[in-house]
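Form P-L/3: holo structure prediction, ligand zinc ion.
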Amino acid sequence: MREFVMTLLDCPACRKGSLKLTIEEKNNIEIVSGKINCSCGAIYPIINAVPRFLDNYRLDKTEGKDVKSSQVQQRFEYQWKRWGRDEVIFGRTREESKKFFLDYAGSKINPGYLKGKFTLDGGCGHGRFAEIMAEFGAYSVGLDLGSGVEIARYRVEKYSNACIVQGDIINPPFKRGVFDYIWSNGVIHHTPDTRKAFTRLAEILKKGGYLDIWLYPKKGFLWEISQKSIRFFTTRMPAGLLEFFCYLAVPLLSVVPTFSKTSFPKNSWSQCAQVIYDWYSPKYQTHHTNKEVSEWYRQEGFMDIEVLDLPVAIVAKKG
Ligand SMILES: [Zn+2]
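OUTPUT (holo model):
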């Protein structure tokens, strides 16, 4: 954990207490272990250089610690454990991911803009975009719910301007109005309430800052109903069995287009299987339209709404 993140953090339990950092172990790179105490009594540990803001980690709590993690958390934990350290993720190398980031960042966001800014990757998973924003010189924070944070932290380790935080995007452990730029690519449609998660991200953005969201687009009736039917089964089967079916289904990617442009045989079996798994595994998955998401931005007081030709990717400035 890097100390700069302390200026951004907020207690998710009370959202008003003051936080105090106690360092237990620090190496020549960062804070490896310690505690963050809130004046409300909540105590959050720093483990393996990641501050942990989930209830089951709280040191002041005994009850509620044995709550099973959600299906979505478990499924993504499996995914990033299995594929998160790969060089190619979603069919893209690191360099290709940089280009992808800039394509989805809209016309106002570029490395020059990001330098020295406080940025958040809301749902950083494997950590590659948090890493890219750090490389562009931002004070880059990656937030994720699951154990993908261990892999994300490994990716950003060499950047003194990057930090990974474990917490819930529906109740993010950050103060209101602290980030200059928030990127959340393909994440909040996997929460129990996509609209609410959108508001939460808008709240922690500074006035004049940019929010950049990409969500799955809503397609035709046949596509929607067929995917819903298949996902009824795939979201209920054990992750390992689903992975097996995903490997079997890989040749289909030679004819079925994917959002990430991963295809067979351009990408390997494993790379294709990851993309299929990503689509069929999480319980929550909502699909949206440009019109609907633009309206969310307006409701939250955003301006300069830029609807990209990459549905549903929208970037806008907080008014
Ligand atoms: Zn508190």
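COMMENT: The pocket of zinc ion is lined by residues 11, 13-14, 17, 38, 40, 42 (CB under 6 Å).
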